[in-house]
Structures are given as C-alpha cells and as structure tokens.
Amino acid sequence: MTDRVRVAVAGLGAVAQSVHLPLLARRWDLFEIAAVCDLSPSLRDELGEQYGVPVGNRYPTVGEMVTGAAVDGVLLLMSGSHGAAALHAVRNDVAVFCEKPLAYTVSEADRLAGAEADRGRPSVLLAYMKEYDEAVDRLRERLVDVRDVRAVEVCVLHPSSVSQLAFANLRPAPADIPSPVASEVRNAEEDLLDAVLGPAASSRMRLLYSYVVLGSLVHDTSLLRDLFGGLTDVDDVRAWPDDVFPPSVEVTGVLPGGARARLAWHYLEDYPAYRETLSIHHATGSMRVTFASPYLLNVPTELAVVDAAAGGELRTTYRSWGESFENELVAFHRMVTDGTRPRAGVAEGRADIVTSQRIMRRLADHQGIRLDGEAARA
Length: 378
Fold this sequence. Notes:
Layout lengths: L4 E6 L3 H13 L4 E7 L3 H10 L7 E2 L2 H7 L4 E4 L6 H9 L3 E4 L7 H14 L4 E3 L7 H10 L5 E10 L2 H4 L14 H19 L5 H26 L4 E8 L7 E7 L5 E8 L7 E8 L2 E7 L9 E9 L2 E9 L3 H15 L7 H22 L6 H4 L1
Parallel strand pairs: 1-2, 1-4, 2-3, 4-5, 5-6, 7-10
Antiparallel strand pairs: 7-11, 8-9, 9-10, 11-12, 12-13, 13-14
C-alpha cells in the first residue's frame, strides 16, 4: 500500500460528475481514479475517457469491477440501497466510501457489520458530508460546554435538482441502459422495500422511504445523531399535501436529555435556492448553522452564535470555506491507509436506518396504514 489510493467509482450520475470526480482529480496527491462503473455503456466510456481510465477498467456492474480491478477502495455513488455492493466489496478486501443511504434494511447492515468484523479493521465510511463540515466542527466544539438544550429545529427548503445542478453542465441522461438490467435493478429495490414496509405498501409510501426519508432527510437525522446521539423517540410525522410528490414532511421527536426536536423538509420545485438551517436553543443562547446547496463546492457554511454578555448579547459568526466533500474524502484516505475509524460507519448507518423506519411507522400510524416488515418492528 502506497499513500496514493487507487479507487473505483460506481455510479456516474449527477453527484459523481458535479462533486466526487472533480474532487478526486483535484486531490491527485491522495487518489488515482483506477476504474469506473455504470449501467450506461456511453456514460462509463465518456467519463472513463475524461478521467483517463483505461477501457479495460470500465465496468457495467460493481461486482465485476471489485473482482476485476486492482483497487484499494470503491466509491458507491449510485442511487438506491448500497448494502449488497458494499458487502461484496468488503468481502473482497476493498474499502467502501458509501453515499447515503448505507442500505434500506437493518438485515443488510447487519450482514455488512459481520463482514467488516471478519476483515478486522474499519472498512466502510458513510459519506454524510455535513458531519465533515468545518462549521459543524465548530458547533460540535461549542456544544461540549452547553447545558440545558431545550429545542433543536431543522428546516430544509429543497428546490428541484435540475435547478440546483444547472451550473454543472452535466452530460445528458443516458438512454442506453439495457432494459433487462434496468428491470433487474428495479425488482431488487422492490424486494428490499417489501422487506421494510411489506408487499402491500403503496408506491407513495415506498417513494417516501427511499427518496425522501432515506434519500434526503437522513442527512438531518444523522446530524442529530452525530451531535446529540439521535432521536430517542419519534412522536409524530406528517406529510402533505396528499396530491403532490415529493410532499412536505415534518418529524417531531425527543433527543437524549429530553430536548425536543423538529425537522421540517419541504420540496419546493421553483424555490429560488436550496436552503437548510439547523438551530439549537439552550438556556443561555442560540446557535444556527446555515448550509448552502450541497452541489456547490467551497461555498461557505455559516455558524451564527448568540451568547449572553454583560448588559446585552454577543453575536459571533463563523464561515467555513473548506469543502466538506473533500474533507470526507481525506477521511476515507486515512481509513484506507492507516485504519483511522471514520466519523460514521456501519453502526451509525444502521442506527439511521432504524430511525428512518420509525419515521415511516409513525407516518403510517397517523394515516391509519398498516405496515409489515422491518418498519412495523422498528
């Protein structure tokens, strides 16, 4: 093993093109892009050519790439559950950088935990970029001395991905994914959703779980886990309006120590810009982190702090210019080269799956819907 890590990239869609591939190229001192994988032949050839990947190292499936390419690590950037792909990689002694979600089911996470234990070293980094944000680092440091947190509020205003990515000049969506392969992927996802929600679950409930709760809101539930230990209870979940998808989703619950948490996620297709805030109110002040669009690199995250001061209040602001996506890649390099445990791995991903399933169960309870599968027992 040299200090420069040979990595394979699986899934060459929007997040790969706009974020990870450019950053891997920027960090040439740490990484070599040695292989790529995508269901689309044209996309893997176009991106493979752009990033200098030999034709023989452009693969249609993760399984073929992990066993066929001589790599130290793999970035799993495709949509859907990453459980099976991550398990195959770990069993073949290849470290995993995993975009959310880790998996759809607890059973997938448990199998992955067993494989990692057999390998005897940290093998999976769960890529929650907000946990690697330098403004969040400062917030984490300040929370050490904070007592009596009363309320934590998260608000996400989510415009369309098309508007967020207009700057990126992405390649056109491929039209050459073989139909049998696409059907196989869809069927595998439906089987996993059956295991979570039950075969009778509606398509709306399935999309809420996979696209909204595990596909986006998990960034915020995981941040609450990282900062406070996670939701100990989910009191109530609402989703509205009924005739719109994606809808607005509101989650209320309790954090360790009794603080109340409220998460509001609103998909607003024509909203002018992505906006996300995390606010913490405690006995002697408040703290608020404001995140910009996740696709824009090196745009500052802002931490605003209000403290008590003699005769009034003291307001301070910290802006971080470091790139959280780059920070998590550096953490992955450390995990691969010297075994440094990542901020979030399989155990943390499993906890986030359980929280996501509890959210779905509360929503089903509110709507008078019966769920089967793992979510019914979460």
